[in-house]
């Protein structure tokens, strides 16, 4: 929630020409102004998310979103320019599938984390319920599945960071429980 509010506040500060001449004493005042609909920040945020969707590094949707942001800022009276950044990776999502094959075949609802390599991984599964349990399990040649209790988003993100440790210990893959409780959530690998 804190991260979402941060993005919302940043968007409001950058895109809202109506607010640029006002002195905002506190973030609460700014948030109330956004929520009350007295400016266009929510409309612009919705347009950015709805019209361009995911904006992964190096993707066409990111380039189109940057062009739209530049045009929107100029139309609002800002003097802005963009700068090229050569050599950015562009990971393209393929079809993400995973199955439990024993004791019966069952398809899992998954999304690969950005940057995941392509290919088939098949192996025995080791389940861990907390980060410390990884240290006490033999994971070499196995797929590590996290089954931590849901507490909050930041805590769930910690399990994604275990990919490096699983690889160091010879694990085949990490299947991390989604950072959102009901739908698969794609993020990015950390220091991988």
TrEMBL record:
Cited InterPro entries: CPQ
UniProtKB keywords: Glycoprotein, Hydrolase, Metal-binding, Metalloprotease, Protease, Secreted, Signal, Zinc, Zymogen
Gene Ontology biological process terms, A to Z: peptide catabolic process; proteolysis
Any one cellular-component term (Gene Ontology): extracellular space
Location, primary (coarse class): secreted
Domain of life: Eukaryota
Location of this chain's protein in the cell: Secreted
Signal sequence annotation: 1-18
GO molecular function terms noted in the UniProt entry: metal ion binding; metallodipeptidase activity
Family: Belongs to the peptidase M28 family.
PANTHER family the UniProt entry points to: CARBOXYPEPTIDASE Q, PROTEASE FAMILY M28 PLASMA GLUTAMATE CARBOXYPEPTIDASE-RELATED
Protein name per the record: Peptidase M28
Protein's organism: Haemonchus placei
